[in-house]
Fold these 2 entries.
Entry 1:
Amino acid sequence: MAGNHTLMLIKPNAVKNGFAQNIFLEVHDAGFKILAQKKLQLSKNEAEAFYYVHEGKPFFNSLVEFMTSGPIYAAVLEKENAVAEWRKLMGATDPAKAEEGTIRKKYAESMEHNAVHGSDSDENALNEIFFYFSAREIVNAGGDIYQIHNIVKK
Ligand code: ATP
Ligand code: MG
């Protein structure tokens, strides 16, 4: 069964350019519940850990530099089939290939400076949500931790 949660990041270029509030509004208007959110700046170690799957790729160092270059927003999004739904609204990684109306089409500057992040599977969504938020923060924001873990409460 597809999960109902995903992790969104608003990347440093979009925050610097003043697009964060517009992006949150579009996410809300598309039917996502913004379960928890925070503004933070990644350290080099944190960015490397978050993007470890890309370690060794030619763009890795530059990606880490970009992701640590300023504040970002992290948010837990809730909607049925959240991973796929958020990736659809986000658009393709390369904004030149992103469909009209998608967030990346509107707010991305390039393949690297592409405005937003979204998890790519339910398993990664879970790991990524708990990279940025503690269970305590999610519960205190009114989130159902059982649902995030896809566990049916007895
Ligand atoms: P994200 O994981 O950030 O949501 P994505 O899943 O669409 O994006 P990935 O393949 O996971 O794309 O790449 C992670 C990020 O690395 C991209 O969002 C982009 O910022 C950067 N990136 C990926 N490929 C390239 C590339 N060829 N050149 C420059 N940057 C790249
Ligand atoms: Mg990805």
Note: The beta strands are 5-10, 33-40, 72-78, 116-118.
Entry 2:
Amino acid sequence: MTNIFDLTGKVALVTGARTGIGQGIAEGLAEAGCDIIGAGHAPMPETEKYIKALGRRFLFYDIDLVKQDKIQDLINETIKTFGRLDILVNNAGIIRREDVLDFSESNWDDVINMNLKSLFFLSQAAGRYMKEHGGGKIINIASMLSFQGGIRVVSYTASKSGVAGITKLMANELAKYNIQVNAIAPGYIDTNNTAALIADPKRSAEILSRIPADRWGRPEDLKGAAVFLASRASDYVNGHILAVDGGWLAR
Ligand code: NAP
């Protein structure tokens, strides 16, 4: 029987695959059969070791995604090394916490540059390649703050609301080229990104009390959604934002 989720022979580029959600997704895609390019600003020995132990290939590409100057090189290097690009996961993201009335320009610019501008131009570069090569999958990492306002994270909320919009726009324009653009909106996942929340007993308890699943998420909780959106199982799914949130949005 053929496996509709099988990704054998596919090549996936995952940004921010050193830690957290990106690491979980890269490992999940490799478990389903992908070779992986991990793009980030520090080597990823743990991710590399796990993926190579599965018998898959792994390439680390050094890039600071606050800037856009190496984005085309990253796509070129992927094609040069692995001969193809099937899946792009725009996972790398940063957050800055500051009261809205004090929020600094640098905390605005860094977050928007990385979470929104680099995500778009990387998707554009990947989309151009995919259009010429029969299609592909672009998976953006959105957030609960693609739907809600949040507190003390105005540039992050702006960026993740923008990610939802870009996902839908690109899905509209690229569906006819057999490129499916979708997003995963993680709920509250225990990673470096949320370390400050977890360390604050009051905020941490407030958050946990409204998660129906009664636990914080873990990076591996995102594997299934990523494999689905990367596989032919989702060939007629376009512009969807799939919440993986233990029920947070349903509450
Ligand atoms: P994380 O562990 O901090 O992951 C962020 C990743 O982005 C890391 O691999 C990090 O690399 C990379 N990165 C940071 N700055 C970079 C730069 N300038 N250039 C290239 N890469 C850079 O946190 P996470 O929670 O897994 O976040 C992953 C994604 O999920 C983000 O888009 C985040 O907004 C989103 N998200 C997280 C949650 C949550 O609850 N955790 C919820 C919703 C959405 P280094 O580790 O090497 O710095």
Note: The mean pLDDT is 97.
